[in-house]
Write a structure and sequence with these properties.
It comes from Nothobranchius rachovii (bluefin notho). Keywords: Receptor, Repeat. This is Protein tyrosine phosphatase, receptor-type, F interacting protein, binding protein 2a. This protein starts with a helix and ends in a 39-residue tail after the last helix. The chain has 4 helices and no strands. The protein is mostly helical and 96 residues long. The relative contact order is 0.14.
Length: 96
């Protein structure tokens, strides 16, 4: 299993520390964690790192944990009904 790139870049709480936890790198391996932090910063870029730092320094910051449970928002099919192509013989007017 892996980590989705969108989560790495777009989630402001995802940091090199989170990645180290996911990779099971113990806190005592400081040189390895420092190397991972440098590679992580190079991977996500300056702008994303700045946004992650600003979010981390904000009051009320809750760090992302490896055991966090997130319930995704369910999308209904009604939001996409306008994208469906209608057949020429299909009536757009409803009787009821």
């Amino acid at each position: 299993s892996g980590v989705h790139g969108g989560l790495v870049i777009l989630e402001p709480r995802f940091s090199s520390e989170t990645l180290a936890l996911l990779l099971n790198i113990p806190p005592q391996k400081t040189l390895l964690r420092r190397h991972l932090a440098m590679a992580f910063a190079a991977l996500v870029g300056l702008q994303a790192m700045q946004e992650k730092r600003e979010y981390g320094n904000a009051t009320g910051h809750m760090p992302l944990t490896t055991t966090a449970k997130v319930k995704p928002k369910k999308l209904g099919f009604t939001q996409f009904s306008h994208l469906r192509k209608r057949k020429p013989d299909e009536a757009a007017d409803y009787i009821c």
